[in-house]
Amino acid sequence: MKNGTDSFLSLGHWPSARSFGFNTDILATNLINLSVVLGLLIFFGKGVLSDLLDNRKQRILNSIRNSEELREGAIEQLEKARAHLRKVEIEADRFRVDGYSEIERKKRNLIDSTYKTLEELEDYKNETLNFEQQKASTQVRQQVFQQALQKALGILKSCLNNSEFHLRIIVVNIAILEARKELRD
């Protein structure tokens, strides 16, 4: 057997070149068959391969476009969520400030009502003290009056037992009556 490339290149050695027949040289026929198959594949498969590549390219572009749309939608939702978060934070701050203001207002009201209650209790205490002082003063006056009255009654009783004193009182009363009589006349 000769060199395989020599048999492929030189057509003179091919016995079937002059007539139709089967070539039994395996190396020569494999190369020819391979080149024919590759040529047919390139010729006929170019369109199919091109279509497959175009379809693949279109699917990839569609996937990229869909990904971009999803990304833009996600960015838009993220911005909406951030705006909502800012709004909620502002609302929470407002509630917090309002809550603190409400607590301060209630605290002030409680302190004011406590002071008012204390002032009322102080006034009640002062009124009670004044009342008790007046009551004590009245009781002391009554006791002094009672003692003075008892002393005067004691003096009167001792004087009434004395007949000279009776005569003097009778004489004074007669003089008073006579003076009145004269004034009438």
TrEMBL record:
Keywords: ATP synthesis, CF(0), Chloroplast, Coiled coil, Hydrogen ion transport, Ion transport, Membrane, Plastid, Thylakoid, Transmembrane, Transmembrane helix, Transport
Transmembrane annotation, as ranges: 26-49
Pfam families with a match to the protein in the record: ATP-synt_B
Alphabetized CDD domains for the sequence: ATP-synt_Fo_b (cd06503)
Protease keyword on record: no
Residues forming coiled coils: 64-98
Superkingdom of this protein's organism: Eukaryota
Entries under InterPro entries matching the protein: ATP_synth_b/b'su_bac/chlpt
GO CC field: chloroplast thylakoid membrane; proton-transporting ATP synthase complex
Topology in membrane: Single-pass membrane protein
Principal localisation: membrane
Molecular function GO terms recorded: proton-transporting ATP synthase activity, rotational mechanism
Location of this chain's protein in the cell: Membrane; Plastid, Chloroplast thylakoid membrane
Oligomeric and partner information: F-type ATPases have 2 components, F(1) - the catalytic core - and F(0) - the membrane proton channel. F(1) has five subunits: alpha(3), beta(3), gamma(1), delta(1), epsilon(1). F(0) has four main subunits: a(1), b(1), b'(1) and c(10-14). The alpha and beta chains form an alternating ring which encloses part of the gamma chain. F(1) is attached to F(0) by a central stalk formed by the gamma and epsilon chains, while a peripheral stalk is formed by the delta, b and b' chains.
Family statement drawn from the similarity comment of this UniProt entry: Belongs to the ATPase B chain family.
Family matches, as PANTHER family: ATP SYNTHASE SUBUNIT B, CHLOROPLASTIC
Function noted in UniProt: F(1)F(0) ATP synthase produces ATP from ADP in the presence of a proton or sodium gradient. F-type ATPases consist of two structural domains, F(1) containing the extramembraneous catalytic core and F(0) containing the membrane proton channel, linked together by a central stalk and a peripheral stalk. During catalysis, ATP synthesis in the catalytic domain of F(1) is coupled via a rotary mechanism of the central stalk subunits to proton translocation. Component of the F(0) channel, it forms part of the peripheral stalk, linking F(1) to F(0).
Listed HAMAP family: ATP_synth_b_bprime
Note: In plastids the F-type ATPase is also known as CF(1)CF(0).
Protein name: ATP synthase subunit b, chloroplastic
Species whose genome carries this gene: Goodenia drummondii
